[in-house]
Design goal:
The protein has helices at residues 17-20, 36-43, 45-50, 54-73, 77-86, 128-139, 143-153, and strands at residues 5-7, 14-16, 104-107, 122-126. The protein is mainly alpha-helical.
Amino acid sequence: MIPNLKQCPHCEIAKGLEKGFSKNRSNKDGYASWCKDCCKQKKSVEYLKDKKKPDFLLKRKQYHQEWHLKSLYDMSLESYQELFERQNGICAICKEPPGKWALRVDHNHSCCPGAKTCGKCIRGLLCMRCNAALERLETFPGWESAAKLYLKDN
């Protein structure tokens, strides 16, 4: 083998050490076993699909969603799905489907101030924008009139 070249055991291509392999002090030669390209492929979604790992990741995500709904809203994932379907998968206020983020659970803050709820005062599901706007209306008395005055003056 030519000095400063190393063969990747995954793709079996000999590449230059400096440009082809990441540094790794735990290996004898000071470079990673796999080349940079194969390492990227290994971390990609396609590799995960081939190795059947998404099931584990999806279960982990679902567990987190279930825990979040139960601990904050005393709500099951099934109850969330039912509410989502009753609203046809759209925000209860602006009637838009969720974008990058899931619809948020909205509850009556006069019943349960703060983030945690009793579960009986859930009003619906809102997009992030509507949820934030509604919070301002409920939390800061006079905010709506001050905002309208601001827009009128400017």
